[in-house]
Design brief:
464 residues; alpha/beta; Gyrase A, domain 2; Rossmann fold; seven-stranded mixed β-sheet; six-stranded mixed β-sheet; Small_GTP-bd
Length: 464
């Protein structure tokens, strides 16, 4: 399906600010009848006569009872120079559940309907205001957890990824057109050889560019969703204290009683621009307590699902069986092994630790004294950003849908190369090249299915 540029839709309304109390709430409306609906409940200037992109003072009044609801500022933005390319009204009212909901109800009673989640952004896409990657970046921007993830989302909203994909598609289209000309109007005896060489060179070039882009996928997804980081160790080695330090608040209960943490605690934290989804786990040890057993089992699962594991060892005690089991359990994971409680006399066998743990994984801290924690943060940032700073691309893949489609496009280009290698006719190889062009179009939304749009925009906020 292709984009619709001039389709008319009914008028939608929704609250665009978070629910609850605040200084200001915004009720947004979009559609052909937005001005007409707003005029029915607005007391002040005639909104249908004011200039576009102006803010107008007045009051919202119930037209049936003439009851004054709130003192407001109403923004009037006329099509097509709006986000949805439709007439848009935004009512800025006093923040609060009652006046905000009352204003929305009046709009719905006077000709608007309640917007579906993401419907404003969906209309912007359908009217050609933005493409699908830009639409998806809107929610990435809203959900950004660090300055860096915000910058990535802004770049995508500005069209960085869109332009790159469009360039790839145009290069494929150019070679497909040349292949068609060569097949339909051969001027030389060796035209098939020349055409095959042209197709092979372009397939190799575009495939290499896609592979370069896919190198950013791992880091990009972490920037979007957070680095799942499990804090593990025996009971009472300082896991909850470390979590509280990183969060800068007392989220987890800290006592000298083993087994205080009986469940998995999850929190997001920004460490040197790396978004970490911290998981403070119950201490892993043998226990007869039924509740503790459940917590320990969840801790083991958290280790398996983690992108990074931080293992805390008590430097003031010798290694235990549980410590050795943890080190063995995580030997194939990306990890940091933290010798905690270095403010106490050291009793841990360092020679044995160094035989098991690589030097770059090992560091010493005293969470109680805040010693070594700056180095911990630096290590995490270095592990994550290593190689990204010198990347030649300004685009980072953060979206699973984009990543999957790029892999499909790469596979189609590989099929072109395999076909050429096997001596297949040019017109058959051309089918795989065309498929790569189509798949890349799904990323930007140049081709799409209605089911895809419904699924994507249903994940958006109401009013966005």
């Amino acid at each position: 399906m292709t984009l619709m540029q001039t389709t008319e839709y009914d008028t939608i309304a929704a609250i665009s600010t978070p629910p609850g109390e605040g200084a200001i709430s915004i009720v947004r409306m979009s559609g052909e009848e937005s001005l007409e609906v707003a005029t029915k409940i607005f007391k002040g200037k005639n909104l249908q006569d004011v200039q576009s992109h102006t803010i107008n003072y007045g009051h919202i009044v119930d037209p049936e009872t003439n009851e004054e609801i709130d003192e407001v500022m109403v923004s009037v933005m006329r099509a097509p120079k709006t986000f949805t390319r439709e007439d848009i009204i935004e009512i800025n009212c006093h923040g609060g559940i009652v006046p905000t909901n009352k204003i929305l109800q009046l709009l719905l009673q006077n000709g608007a309907r309640l917007a579906e989640p993401g419907e404003f952004t969906k209309r912007a896409f359908l009217h050609g205001r933005i493409d699908l990657t830009q639409a998806e970046s809107v929610m990435d921007l809203i959900r950004a957890k660090t300055d860096r993830s915000m910058q990535i989302a802004l770049g995508q909203l500005d069209g960085n990824l869109s332009q790159l994909i469009k360039n790839l598609r145009q290069d494929i289209l150019d070679v497909l057109a040349q292949v068609e000309v060569n097949i339909d109007y051969p001027e030389y005896d060796d035209v098939e050889t020349l055409t095959t060489r042209l197709l092979k060179e372009k397939a190799q070039e575009v495939k290499a560019r896609i592979e370069e882009l896919l190198k950013t996928a791992g880091q990009g997804k972490i920037m979007r969703d957070g680095l799942a980081t499990a804090i593990v160790g025996r009971p009472n080695v300082g896991k909850s204290s470390l979590l509280n330090y990183l969060l800068h608040e007392d989220k987890a209960i800290v006592t000298d009683v083993a087994g205080t943490t009986r469940d998995v605690i999850e929190e997001y934290v920004n460490i040197r621009d790396v978004p970490l989804k911290l998981i403070d786990t119950a201490g892993i040890h043998e226990t007869q307590d039924k509740v503790e057993k459940i917590g320990v089992e969840r801790s083991r699962r958290a280790i398996g699902q983690a992108d990074l594991v931080m293992i805390l060892l008590n430097a003031s005690e010798p290694l235990t069986v549980e410590d050795r089991q943890l080190l063995e359990l995580t030997k194939d994971k990306k990890r940091l092994v933290i010798l905690n409680k270095t403010d106490l006399p050291q009793k841990i066998e360092m020679a044995e630790v160094k035989q098991i743990v690589a030097a770059e994984e090992l560091l010493s801290t005293s969470v109680l004294k805040n010693d070594g924690l700056d180095e911990l943060e630096e290590r995490i940032a270095k592990m994550f950003f290593n190689g990204i700073e010198n990347s030649q691309t300004t685009v980072m893949l953060t979206n699973s849908r984009h990543i999957a489609l790029l892999h499909q496009a790469k596979d189609s280009l590989q099929a072109v190369l395999d076909g050429i290698e096997a001596g297949m006719p040019v017109d058959l190889c051309q089918i795989d090249m065309t498929n790569a062009w189509d798949v890349l179009g799904e990323i930007t939304g140049d081709s799409y299915q209605d089911e895809l749009l419904d699924q994507l925009f249903s994940q958006f906020c109401l009013g966005k």
